Amino acid sequence: MKLSTEISPPSPTAGVAENFVAVRGLTKVFKDFWGRDKARAVDNVDFEVRRGEVFGLLGPNGSGKSTTVKLLLGLLNPTRGHIEVFGKSPDHVATKERIGYLPEESYLYRYFNSGETLQFFGKLFDLPSDERRRRTEQLLEMVGLKATQMRAVGEFSKGMQRRIGLAQALINDPDLVILDEPTAGLDLIGCREVKDLIVALARRGKTVILSSHLLADVEDVCDRVVIYYGGKIHAAGALNELLAAPDAVRLTLPALPRETMQRLLDFIRQDIVADRVQMDVPTQNLENYFLGVMEKARAAQTQTSGASSGNRVAEYLRGANDAINVSDKFLQRLTEATPEKSSPATVAVAETSRTEEAKLTALVAPPQSAAPAPKTAPPVAPNDDAKINEKLSSLLGKKE
Amino acid sequence: MRRCFAIASQTVTAAFRFRAVVAVVFLLLICVGGLPFVIKHNGTARMFAQVMLTYNLCVITGLLAFTTLWLACGTLAGEISSGQLQMVVAKPIARWQIWLGKWLGILAVNALLLGVAASAAALLMFWRAHELSPDEQKILHQQVLVARGGLREAPVDLETDVERMYEKRATMNRFAISIPNS
Questions:
Q1: First CA to last CA across chain B, in angstroms?
Q2: Domain for residue A211, yes or no?
Q3: Structural domains counted in chain B
Q4: pLDDT score recorded for residue A334
Q5: Contact across the interface for A97 and B92, Cβ inside 8 Å
Q6: CATH number for the domain that contains residue A195
Q7: Would you tell me which of A100, A191, A367, A400 could form a disulfide with A169, CB atoms 3.0–4.6 Å apart?
Q8: Phi-psi region of A10 (alpha: psi -120 to 50; beta: other; left: phi over 0)
């Protein structure tokens, strides 16, 4: 599979969705004592982060992801280039009221306990005391640290510190959440909870920038990614487009009788070289299997000295209309005018001729069967936005 | 200002949780209490005051200056090097508010330490004042500890009443003088 290596230039049509973050020609060069270039951490980078999307900064260690994040937050000054966050400079103090930040390391005050930590950061956001207390309780519940809230953060394990770091990043109910390696140090359950949280935030219309070198994290939650290497972006775009293999199709079928399967394979091998056809039995995802085992173990065991599993996303972060926002976001993504070429899956459907479909159906059907071919959805004109909207609305539920 | 106070409160908490305040208070009390036993006075109020006040205050000032330097460098440099300040700077708080908050926190710690040390020095002085002769004690109270007069209740202003009574008496006297003797 080949990833797109071309960065599409910013297009006027891409501005349909509001850009929360815009980066143009961003360069950061670290210099030594004598002012000579020591390391070019970020090199002429361009990207935008649109409202309501989960945006991934992906790359190996030292590729410039964390430096980019620090530049976005105004923790570092760029050598060259332009950054806008909510239309303002990253140094603009008031803008930071809308940003939640989890750094790559949990830089917490070791002598505070978890409740005091959240209270402290809540005060920095000037939250009223009642609201601060309410959010603190909900966040501790969410990250599974309510039972250990009187312990100093310095005594916490790395995973527990990560959880409290994540909680502090959400104390202000931010519009833009910047998470730098959020799952580092977390166990699998914690990783899943963080990913669920990111999805929940995205459902509420929050924008998330996720920096990670863990591909699984990014793949599970991100809408669009940029891939860094050596401070430069080597690939950018929507994740489903980058990962799609346009010249391959995967069929998942229930177990078929041996004869049917043989006929199906024979038919396929008429057109395709035998070694290009792969067949296997789908297995359960190891992560899901592990989580199932943990769920059973948790039901049997009552207490743990470490972090427990977070029960649910904090109430103030959930919002009341998750389902509506999901469908809104889905509709927006599908109907948004984008300059990119159509997705590979759509291309594959369009190219499948009716005769081949009929032949395939007849072949898979039992011999001498008079059953009619299954009904297929009528082809949809690609530019008929109204029809697409109507159909998706009926599938996802009408907006109230 | 709430953000400044949050930083100040965090600085004070850090000083207490790291036992810095406890250690400095302990050191101050040892110095204040131990110095008069090391340097003897000659029984005069002047020398007694010099040992109990001047030398003690020098030690207190030195220790507090050292504490201020230590706290200021420790809190800021430590938080920068360990990255904690990154978390704070990423929040909606201006650099000057962080600086002011730190300054207020260190000021509060210093005020507390000064209060404890000065109270201890004053109590020790009053307690040991009985070692002096009655005459020297009188000198001590009249010449050294005169500032305490400022804490006493202000005397009643009798000046107006005296003036009025004087005028009244003077009028009566003039009237009495003007009556011819028969």
A1: 86
A2: yes
A3: 1
A4: 46
A5: yes
A6: 3.40.50.300
A7: A100
A8: beta
The rounded distance, in Å, linking the Cα atoms of B87 and B98 is 12
What pTM was estimated for this model as a whole?
Answer: 0.68
Residue A341 lies in a domain: no
Q: Per the structure, how many domains does chain A have?
A: 1
The reply to whether A174 falls in a domain is yes
Q: pLDDT for A15-57, tens place per residue? A: 456 889 999 999 999 998 888 888 899 999 999 999 989 999 9
Q: Which domain holds residue A168?
A: 12-243
Helix (H), strand (E) at residue A335: helix A322-335
| Chain mean position to CA A102 | 16
Q: Which residue reads 């410039």 in tokens? A: A64
Residue B143 phi/psi, 5° resolution? -110, -30
ipTM: 0.73
Q: Please, which residues have CB within 8 angstroms of residue A36's CB and are 6 or more apart in sequence? A: none
A232 contacts A220 by C-beta, under 8 angstroms:
no
Cβ of B88 within 8 Å of Cβ of A124? The answer is: yes
Q: Residue B72, Cα to own-chain centre: how many angstroms?
A: 22
Q: Is residue A325 part of a domain?
A: no
A116 contact residues in B (CB cutoff 8 A) = 13
Decide if B3 and A126 are in contact by the 8 Å CB cutoff. yes
Does residue A185 come out as left (phi exceeding 0), alpha (psi in the -120 to 50 range) or beta?
A: left
Which of B5, B86, B92 shows the shortest C-beta gap to A125? B92
Contact call for residues B67 and B113 (beta carbons, < 8 A): yes
**Over the stretch A253-297, which tens digit does the pLDDT of each residue have?**
888 888 998 898 888 888 888 788 888 777 767 667 777 777 777
Given an 8 Å threshold on Cβ–Cβ distance, is A96 in contact with B90? yes
Chain A residues with CB under 8 Å of B89 CB are 73-75
Q: CA A168 to CA A140: how far, in whole Å?
A: 10
A353 Cα distance to chain centroid: 35
Q: B22 in contact with A at a CB cutoff of 8 Å?
A: no
* Structural domain boundaries enclosing B77: 2-178
